[in-house]
Amino acid sequence: MSSKRHILTAVAWPYANGPRHIGHVSGFGVPSDVFARFQRMSGHDVLMVSGTDEHGTPVQVLADQEGVTPRELADRYNRVIVEDLVALGLSYDLFTRTTTGNHYAVAQELFTGLYDNGYIFTRTTKGAISPSTGRTLPDRYIEGTCPICGYDSARGDQCDNCGNQLDPIDLIEPRSKVNGEVPEFVDTEHFMLDLPAFAEALGTYLTAKSGQWRPNVLKFSLNLLDDLQPRAVTRDLNWGVPIPLEGWSDNANKRLYVWFDAVVGYLSAAVEWAKRTGDPDAWRRWWQDPQAESYYFMGKDNIVFHAEIWPAMLMGYSGIGDRDGDPGSLGALNLPTEVVSSEFLTMEGRKFSSSRRVAIYVRDFLERYSADALRYYIIAAGPETQDTDFTWAEFVRRNNDELVAAWGNLVNRTISMAAKYVGEIPEAGDLTDDDRRVLDHSRAAFAAVGGHLDRSRFKAGLQEAMRTVAEANKYISDQAPWALRKTDPDRMRTVLHVALQLVDDAKTLLTPFLPASSNKVHAMLGGTGVWSAMPHVEDAVDTIGGSGEPTTYQVITGDYAASQARWESVPVRPGTPLAAPTPLFTKLDPAVADEEVARLEDAAK
Ligand SMILES: [Zn+2]
Predict the structure, then answer these.
(1) Cα 98 to ligand 1 centre (Å)
(2) How far apart are CA 104 and CA 52, in angstroms?
(3) Are 465 and 513 a contacting pair, CB within 8 Å?
(4) Residue 150, SS3?
(5) How far is the CA of 15 from the centre of ligand 1 (A)?
(6) Mean pLDDT of residues grouped by 10 in the chain (605 residues)?
(7) Spatial distance between the Cα atoms of 448 and 443, rounded to a whole number of angstroms
(8) Cα(167) to centroid(ligand 1), Å
């Protein structure tokens, strides 16, 4: 239990074609941060990495529409997303981007290792050309009816309605978005990942996860094994990572498929992080020590990449699979310990859709409400194991009833009484059975909440933590220390001492969920220094987007080792001066919910 674990927290890479909405951060963002903060508080060595996913067709299409380069578009949304994720308090050790020279090199190394072991082969497929010009018609410029869901504006590479990846030739009634003509399909060569060669190894790997992974995630992953097909890892596109093979690397119209380079990001970001620390091999502790653990956080639309394709890539690179082989130059790499997938968040009964503007963007949300209020809602009422609907009315209710009336009020009334009646944390006299019982419960909550968080059961963990808040409120109401002030001041001091201990414990239990407000409570209780460190933005330098020029870009990082927060009950120190507290959370007028819904209706018109 006490031994130090190396825990990689691998967080899905947000796509840099626009600002992220609260559905996105409820899938990958907040749950992964709760997990990472809890594990750090438990004394483990956490490496939490991610970044913006910047290649591929959607970025290029949007750039074309706006008359900017894909690189300019990616630069813009990388910055927006970095600011939003910092504002949410997500404690990345490194949040970078897929356009760095480091990432290009690592993605190409994975390709090379798989190719050398025979797990990547070429196949001639049909590519589209424009009959009037004879030139290659990139996938993004072909539109047609989706063969899977019937959506009439599916793109050549993906259907935005059902989310399935497509090939242009599969589209019903394909047409060029440039001039409406019907494309002609001619032979073109692409590289394929031989997924069927991993069927047996993946089966063994996944079967061993029974009882560990969320049942819905495991069942979905095992079902995928029934239909493993070779998957294209290159695309007719000029925005992406070049193919690292003689005769291909200078072909301006062939690039690694965006999904291939994006999943390698977990590894490349760890490598980049290690370089930044001055110990370039430091990443190996999370990727090559057989005892190290890795947890991948995402929404359920990404399970296929994390439970099937990425493990297959890691196996093939490490020389595991039907054709065996030798590990590539980085050495053998660890497979995911667990794929922690969330379900979907809908909003006021509708599916989030950026293109239809049915979305609540993180930035807009945080302009009006606190990050902790959003974090609380996402964990308490988010899509952890089932699709869940976000409603403004429920957000306001939980903010007012649970954060303001339960937790905020406990902090406020306890500290104000102690500040007013004593001026400092009082000494406890003899404890009664009631005192001992409530303190025992509070101490025992660390094992209970921790057990949930270690298994990524965040909602259950938060409920358990909030139960200690309810018990503390009940204790204070029952003991009524205000009534003892004149009749039995010694007993009043003991009750206030016990109550302050309960507040301090609850602050610690809630730190992974509500880091910013826990920091405030730490200060209100007379604490000094950093309780739970928050992320910040720093400059980094690398080449970006395949240009040879060193460029400054921004990453999210943090000095989390400076945090005092430990996952344990720490006795409060009598004599610590206390001042009157300021409110922890803001009560919201219920009319706010109606205003927000109206705002949404307007935007969707
Ligand atoms: Zn479709």
Answers:
(1) 27
(2) 14
(3) yes
(4) coil
(5) 20
(6) 85 95 92 98 98 92 91 97 98 98 98 98 90 78 93 89 86 91 92 98 97 92 93 90 94 91 98 98 98 96 94 98 97 98 86 69 96 98 91 96 98 98 97 98 98 97 98 98 97 98 98 98 97 98 93 97 98 97 96 91 78
(7) 10
(8) 12
